[in-house]
Write a structure and sequence with these properties.
The complex is a heterodimer of chains A (about 450) and B (about 280). Chain A folds into 3 domains: about 1-70; about 75-220, no CATH class; about 230-450, MetI-like (MetI-like fold, Orthogonal Bundle). Chain A contains 18 helices and 3 strands. Chain A has helices at about 1-70, 85-90, 100-105, 110-120, 130-140, 145-155, 175-180, 195-205, 215-220, 230-265, 270-280, 285-295, 305-330, 335-345, 350-375, 380-385, 405-415, 420-450, and strands spanning about 75-85, 165-170, 210-215. The longest helix of chain A is centred in the first third of the chain and has 69 residues, at about 1-70.
């Protein structure tokens, strides 16, 4: 009996001590674990910050590198030459009537005028007569376009005939590259001989060489000659293709998403469709190109290399992205909003278009932009449908042959001429700028919808 | 342990008994007979029959999950939006079967309006919120008529004086109580015959609740009202008839004062005296 009482008091004592102990340990434990948790949080913050910094640095490096490489493409060296419009060289009968003269000017031999004028310039004074090899090297200093500059000038001002005129023409791309970069002569890639270098030096001391803004980069199309190649054709092609893509993929994608989310019955078929759409988003883009070639070009016989075909192929590619993003945005609209409108007697259509869609619009626009941005940078599927062709004309409609910026970048990056290196970077810059413009437009649109 | 036993006993008893009290009203606006509601295989509502008396407030009370909200949402076919939901039985609004094949739920919802538990104004201006119903149903021919509808609806909802200077401001910027009154104004603007309220004051503070309750009392002059509520005091204050639901069944229905003073069924008594639920 006493024993049991004792033991019970022991028990209570023990209970007390356990309780005391446990209260102390809980506070201690919490403090201890709190320290650990704080440390964890700190560590995570640092890792996160490092990740962001790393990503930012990569982007920064990329952009500075591309910009630095692209800068030479935005200016071009011109040279002032004394053109002697001798009628004999031109093979023009200067006694003919004015109308006949204009006709003759169209077909005159400007190459001879150019060459002889240059030879004249470099064979005066102390210099001895030019050898055949010298002559060949000398003509290579100037762009093939110089001939046409001379022609255009004479046609604009016919009274220059038989006169000696100072004229600015473009230098050849090799010379241009030589002037832009101080590469030692004879290095791989720079095709300028010692003799040519001397002539260039002479021209610069006479202040006949001038570096100007390279406007033709923005106004010309592709060319085999780097000093004449421009971005306009590819840029127009890209804009036309994106126009078709946007026009097709956005309405189709949003309509599909609305139907699947709001109207379609939930059954096995819609499940299958959903799975397929998700799978389609993961299909390699070149497969869509093959599909475009097999179906759109071979069966429907739409023109090869056309922005219309490119747009359709890119639509196929971006559609799943837009549908998935739009469905997510529509799903995120609170059901209470739908109920409110339904409860007032709005039809399903009215609920969707006046309540659900405006609420989902920011998300839909984001999805659309991701899709379009993807399409903008896409190269592979367009190779399959012939948009990789060398096209010198600026496309004027969605049925003309065209190429797009990423394909142009691919083509230029593949070219051996050194000057194309800068052109490639410059084209990348143009592409990135376009992307930036699209993103800014999207952000503005989105914030506008969000305000509502 | 003891309590649980009583509950189980009562349930088995309930399975055998019919609804006690009086489900009939002399001037029924809506009459429901033998309504069953299924969610897929699961039956949520078992054989419920009751009348909603015209120009009176009928309160639906009962513990959570007893099916009172489900039942309420059958009355304007809001359950149609749930694919797996199936309703059988005869549900009449005046002389129209609301589940008839040729009856358009859009028309039904214009006649039977609904106010939800959480205030859900559209993210539009106060004016547009109230005008929306009138607009989609084409109730007005010109701006002046619409202005009038908006004003009278807001007045009836007791909100006009508070918002008359900021009708162009978004409805979501109002306080919770004001938002709920805006939702009521929005419902009234369509001139429904019946208003269903699904716990309209449960997300509001006591003052806003009192205002809403007063409003319900005024609204019954013109509309037939069914209100689901968790607050027995609220049911006692605003309703003329009370129906007590339990496990998807209608246990008891009758005049509010009878239900709260002399409940016939043991379950009702347990619930209103706060013994369970």
């Amino acid at each position: 009996m006493t024993n049991s009482i004792k033991s019970s008091t022991d028990n209570t004592q023990m209970n007390d001590s356990i309780q005391q102990k446990s209260t102390v340990t809980i506070t201690e434990k919490v403090t201890k674990s709190l320290k650990k948790r704080h440390r964890k949080e700190k560590r995570f913050k640092i890792v996160g910050l490092l990740a962001v910094l790393f990503g930012f640095m990569l982007v920064l490096t990329l952009i500075t590198d591309i910009t630095a490489k692209a800068i030479p493409a935005f200016h071009q060296h011109w040279v002032k030459i004394d053109v002697d419009y001798k009628s004999a060289w031109l093979n023009i009968d200067d006694t003919a009537a004015a109308t006949q003269l204009t006709n003759q000017m169209q077909t005159a031999n400007y190459r001879k005028v150019l060459r002889n004028s240059i030879y004249q310039m470099f064979s005066t004074g102390a210099e001895k007569k030019l050898t055949r090899q010298d002559k060949r090297q000398l003509t290579k200093l100037f762009s093939t376009n110089a001939e046409f500059t001379i022609k255009d000038k004479l046609i604009a001002k016919p009274n220059y005939i038989n006169k000696k005129i100072e004229l600015w023409v473009k230098l050849d791309d090799d010379v241009d590259s030589y002037l832009k970069e101080d590469f030692p002569l004879g290095e791989a890639g720079l095709r300028v001989s010692k003799k040519q270098a001397e002539w260039i030096a002479k021209l610069s001391t006479e202040q006949r060489i001038d570096s100007r803004f390279n406007l033709s980069f923005f106004t010309a199309s592709d060319s085999r000659e780097p000093e004449l190649a421009g971005i306009k054709g590819a840029l127009t092609g890209t804009l036309l293709t994106m126009f078709v893509t946007l026009l097709l993929s956005f309405p189709l994608g949003v309509a599909g998403a609305i139907y699947l989310e709001e109207f379609a019955p939930k059954n096995r078929w819609t499940d299958i469709i959903e799975i397929n759409i998700n799978n389609l988003a993961a299909v390699p883009s070149i497969v869509f190109g093959l599909l475009g070639l097999a179906v759109i070009i071979n069966i429907f016989e739409l023109p090869r290399s056309a922005p219309l075909v490119g747009g359709i192929v890119l639509t196929l590619m971006t559609l799943p992205t837009i549908i998935i993003a739009s469905r997510a945005a529509i799903k995120a609209v609170p059901p209470s909003l739908r109920e409110a409108a339904l409860g007032l007697g709005a039809s399903k259509m009215q609920v969707t278009f006046s309540h659900v869609l405006p609420q989902a619009m920011p998300g839909i626009i984001t999805g659309g932009i991701i899709g379009i941005a993807q399409a903008l940078g896409e190269t592979a599927p367009l190779l399959m449908i012939g948009m990789v062709a060398f096209i010198v004309d600026v496309p004027t409609s969605i049925l003309d042959s065209a190429t797009v910026l990423p394909v142009q970048i691919f083509l230029w990056a593949d070219s051996p001429e050194r000057a194309f290196l800068a052109k490639t970077s410059a084209a990348i810059l143009v592409l990135l700028t376009l992307l930036l413009v699209i993103n800014i437009t999207a952000t503005v649109l989105r914030s506008k919808f969000e305000k509502k | 342990m003891n309590n649980l036993n009583i509950k189980e006993n009562d349930l088995s008893e309930l399975a055998l008994t019919e609804t006690v009290g009086n489900i009939y009203a002399d001037n029924a606006k809506m009459s429901i007979r033998n309504a069953d509601v299924y969610y897929g295989e699961k039956q949520a509502i078992h054989n419920i029959s009751l009348d909603l008396a015209q120009h009176q407030v009928t309160a639906l009370i009962g513990p959570s999950g007893c099916g009172k909200s489900t039942f309420l949402r059958c009355l304007n076919r809001m359950n149609d939006t749930i694919d797996i939901c199936r309703v059988t039985g005869q549900l009449m609004l005046d002389n129209d079967d609301i589940y008839a094949k040729d009856l358009d739920p859009v028309l039904l919802r214009a006649r039977v309006g609904m106010v939800f538990q959480k205030p859900n104004p559209f993210p539009k201006s106060i004016y547009d919120n109230v005008a929306y119903g009138a607009r989609i149903h084409g109730l007005t021919n010109n701006k002046t008529e619409l202005d009038e509808i908006v004003e009278t609806s807001l007045q009836k909802a007791g909100l006009f004086n508070e918002v008359k200077d900021r009708l162009k401001e978004p409805g979501t910027g109002l306080s919770g109580g004001q938002q709920q009154r805006l939702c009521i104004a929005r419902t009234i603007a369509v001139s429904p015959e019946v208003i269903l309220m699904d716990e309209p004051a449960s997300a509001l503070d006591p003052i806003a609740t009192a205002i809403i309750e007063e409003l319900i009392d005024e609204l019954k002059e013109k509309y037939t009202i069914a209100i689901v509520t968790h607050s027995m005091q609220q049911a006692a204050r605003v309703s003329q008839h009370t129906a007590y639901f339990h496990m998807g069944k209608l246990v008891e229905m009758g005049k509010t004062e009878d239900i709260f003073t002399r409940p016939e069924h043991k379950l009702t008594e347990n619930y209103i005296t706060g013994r369970f639920g």
